[in-house]
Amino acid sequence: MGRGTSKPPIIGRDDQQQELEAMLLSSAGRLAVIYVVGDSGVGKTILVNSVCSKPSVREHFKERIGVKVGKDAGISNILSLMSKELKKENNESDNENPRSKIQRRLGEECYLIIIDGRQMSIADWNAVIHALPKNERGSRVVLITKIKPQFLDHPMNDVHEIKLTCLNQTDCRKLFHMRLHGKEEDEQNQTYLPIYYQRVYDITGGSPLAVILLAGLMHNKEYPHEWDRVLKYLESAKEKRLNRILSLSFDDLHHELKLCFLYFTAFPVSYKVYQNVLVNLWVSEGFVVPRHGKTVQQLGQLYLRQLTTRGLVTEASADGDYDIRHFFLHDSVYLFARSEAHEANFMELHDGDYFPSPDRARRLTLHNSMDRYAALDNKMPKLRSIFAIFEEIPASTAEESVSSPSCFPTCCSCEQHRSPKISRFDLTKLLKRSKFLRVIMIEGLNIGTELPEAIGGMVHLRYLSTRCRSLRRIHPSIGNLKNLQTIDVRQSLVHELPCSFWKITSLRHVFGSELIVPRWTRELKQLNTLKSVRALQDWDGSMLRRMVNLKLLDVTIQEKLKEEKARKLSDNLNNLNNLTTLILKGVDLPISSIFTAPSLQFLKTIELTGTILLTTPSPEIDKMTTSPSDFQLPNLSKLSLSKTCLQQGFIGKLGKLPLLSNLTLKDVSCD
Which of 9, 16, 324, 648 could serve as a FRET partner for 104 with CA atoms 20 to 30 Å apart? Predict the structure, then answer.
């Protein structure tokens, strides 16, 4: 069999794509609301993402926000999600009220907001519309939902509707064929397929989700015996055939792939699950181990591709300057995965309706925003992983009334939509009661100002993520975690890690928000990621010599370096032979030689913010100003330059690099 595609192609939706694009780009100035409606699995999200990712649409709107809203999210969480999607501006406070931030940032702009809100209540939807600025800039709001909500037409808004149904038999055949073989295959050469097309259509009913899943399943089945057996089994079911397809698809996975798939149930439906985070978690759990000459990162990415090829996992459209990939499960697939995870005692969910047994839980995820800490009051001796992922609630929002009485006086329950009370979570209690934790992932909770001393006793811990604004310090006992692989303190107020931390030789990934670079570290041969750190005065990058396998480096150089230190930093950067991504910000960046360094063969992405010094006498710089053939970045595909003050001739030579496909110039990047 041929290879399937990882992303669902858009089949049979030409008219709807044109209609949606026309609505978005219409010259009408008033705020317009566009409902994209249809049954589960007909491809609403794929259609919207496909149209909204077009360059014509992206360039039309100054601000773009896309959020997925879960059940009973409440207006505070929805606005917080929307606010977080706005790129942070200089000197912008993290504690600004989300509603105020949205009004301030969008008030005079042409904006596009996409809400995947098939589970949103009428009250929440009304509150969102009420919170948006009503300008005359041609702004648009797209709501993805099963049924158009009733009694929501605001007199100040234009309202449109696009309805999707299942595919007809011809389009069903095209989609099945493309998912099975890929575009490069000639359909005329597949003589065995036509006899199955009618059966595929009868089984799936033309539902794109069912077609994609069935193609992903049949892709790995032997023709014709296994095909006939699978189709006959599915035809025997009179209803709930999608669940049968899902069950067969899941059973067809090897053991490690099943675990990786079920791991998606750790995250709320609204959470963006990024590739690097997911793979790092799989590695920490031991689901991915080196084999067949591949590293754990390569194997983890391979597993993710296999899940997307089978249609079990969907890759979201990338947005922004970097091709950041994040993934999600379709709602129907997510519900199936939750059921399987619970039955296998793989992942326990506390969402208000169900309280897991403390003695049974091995992995616990908290989705109950109204009672965030209840499940953690018990001793859980078998607990291996804890996930508590919530939207951070700024203090300015905690006591705010979340709805406007004049907007919808009769359809909002105060109990359902009130903001959760901000209280402190006793992390020490959890650590002392669950000594075998391997993964801690906490976001949006008040855990106090310091990660407690008890963290040093969690000797099995491999993954630690505490993205909480209350956190300011990490206790030095963290140096006892000899198995720690990943730490993530982004979105916290932690700006420096203790010296003992930099002695952990098992470290692979360090994520922070401009963490102060240490003066000294132990040999960190396994470290792949250092993002992001802040270099103090006279930093020469000597610590980088002890990080020989570094692949991603993100550094801000706060002060101008002395000439000797600058030259040493340039040399130390050039010796990072495995580097694939380099992000540097500063006043004067003495790193012009990276463009000619023969050692940086694997660099794919470079982002430079600040003046690049080209005046230091050296053979490398002389070469750069004479011949583009001397550039030594054969794999560079993305380059972003901001405030670099480079000569136009130099920029032109960069454009001749063999694989450079994305060159971004902004804020006076060249003379």
Answer: 324
Mean pLDDT of the chain: 84
Is 599 within a domain? yes
| Pairwise CA distance, residues 225 & 403, whole Å | 60
Reported pTM: 0.88
CA 194 vs. chain centroid, Å, equals: 39
- The answer to whether the bond into 532 is cis (omega within 30° of 0) is yes
Range of the domain at 199: 169-251
Task: Let me know if residue 462 belongs to a domain.
Answer: no
Determine the 3-state secondary structure of 670 from DSSP.
strand
pLDDT in tens, 43-99: 999 999 999 989 999 999 999 999 988 777 788 888 988 998 987 776 667 778 899
pLDDT at 153 exceeding the cut of 90: no
Separation of alpha carbons 174 and 379, rounded Å:
54
Ordered strands of the 326-328 beta sheet: 273-274, 326-328, 314-315
pLDDT value at position 523? 95
658 is a domain residue:
yes
Q: Say if CB 281 and CB 243 are below 8 A apart.
A: no
CB 367 within 8 A of CB 266: no
In DSSP terms, 439 is beta-bridged to 385, 463
| 94 plus 183 within the same structural domain | no
Q: How far apart are CA 180 and CA 202, in angstroms?
A: 18
In sequence order, which residues have a C-beta less than 8 Å from that of residue 292 and are 6 or more positions away? 299
CATH number of the domain enclosing 664: 3.80.10
Same domain, 632 and 569: yes
pLDDT (mean) for 439-465: 95
How many domains does the chain contain in total? 3
For residue 426, report the phi and psi dihedrals to the nearest 5 degrees: -80, 90
* pLDDT of residue 420 exceeding 50: no
**8 A C-beta contact, residue 494 and residue 474:** yes
Strands (E), 86-204: 111-116, 140-145, 158-163
248-262 tens-digit pLDDT: 999 999 999 999 999
- List the CATH number of the domain containing 73: 3.40.50.300
Residue 554's DSSP bridge partners are 583
Same domain, 634 and 542: yes
State the Rg of the chain over Cα: 26
Nearest residue to 13 via CA among 37, 57, 46, 35: 46
CA distance 603 to 601: 6
